[in-house]
Amino acid sequence: MKKIKKIMAFLLVLASLSACTGSIPSNSTGESSRERTQEATTEEKRSVSVETYKNTFTFDKIPERVVSLSFSETQLLVALGLGDRIVGIATAETGVQDCLPEYQKELSKLKVISKDTPSMEVLLESNPDFVVGTVYSFTEHGVAPAEDFVKQGIPYYALRGTYVENANIQDTYKDIENLAKIFHVEERGEKLIQSLKEREAKYMESAPKDRSTKVFVYNSGDEKQAMTVGGNCLDAKLLQLAGGETIFKDIEKRYGSVSWEEVSIRNPELIVIYDYNDGVTRGTLEEKIKEIKEHPAMADVDAVKNNRFVSVRLIEVFPGLQLFDAVEKIQQGIIQARGE
């Protein structure tokens, strides 16, 4: 029960956040010493300004000592060829085994400073000059409030899909663009974005045209209520791309709590379960399915009667390279549910 409360508290923090930005003085970072060409040295002199949660940072030099606070953003950095700049990572609710196979070897070699959310004290031990994470990391419930990073002179970047209003897949493309800009690897960023856009086009083409399949997303909960997703968030956009829609699109925030009786009334055709298979909620996928099947209020729900469950990894629904892995799994479940 304590585990569920911890997760629900985290999700409620995310749900309460909205886009908020402002300017602060320029924040210089450490001078790079990595294998430079003359062109790269010239690029190093170019100042870059990037807007993020609550602040806009100006980078006069390329960051050298990066701490990344979950595998979603760590994998993005590695894909951009920046693994040698990462001096510490937090694993949060995900393991290396959940990441893309082509990056697992490099990811496994990175120094883990916390298997949960590190304190500011632990983070400072790595002497970072740049920190990347979800917005949760930059609140009082995460590492520390955003203003504490500013006081420490540490620029940060929060993934847009975790805090902007009505977030969508385009925000992940913007994350890649911004990170590539900070590190002066724009060409790599463009190639990465293009590869993701090709997958997006593929699933748009193969999705059922009416996109009306009713989907209930189960994140976590207890015998009385469930934490699910609303209609104005990245999660809902992934469902739409796959060919479905959340049955709780009237919830304005990313996450909200609903009664099991209300889930039953809305009668989903497919249930998507978020699988936390590492961290404090490890091994709960089977338990979640069992809880749903055995809950009295869910007995007459179409998805339960027809055993229509799809599980997606947590990393697949957070901004990053694996969004379309979630779309593929959900789309397959929708097609099966429709008998197509």
**Terminal residue distance:** 40 Å
Mean of pLDDT: 87
How many domain regions?
A: 2
Give the strand line-up of the largest sheet: 5-4-3-6-7
Describe the structure.
This protein is an alpha/beta fold. It folds into two domains: 48-203, Nitrogenase molybdenum iron protein domain (Rossmann fold); 209-338, 3-Layer(aba) Sandwich (Rossmann fold), CATH 3.40.50. Helices cover 39% and strands 18% of the residues. The protein contains 13 helices and 14 strands. It has a five-stranded parallel β-sheet, covered by helices on one side. It has a four-stranded parallel β-sheet with strand order 11-8-13-14, with helices on both faces. It has a three-stranded antiparallel β-sheet with strand order 9-10-12. It starts with a helix and ends with a helix. Residues 1-10, 18-42 and 279-283 have low confidence and may be disordered.
Defining key terms:
Rossmann fold; 18% strand; alpha/beta; 14 strands; five-stranded parallel β-sheet; four-stranded parallel β-sheet; 340 residues
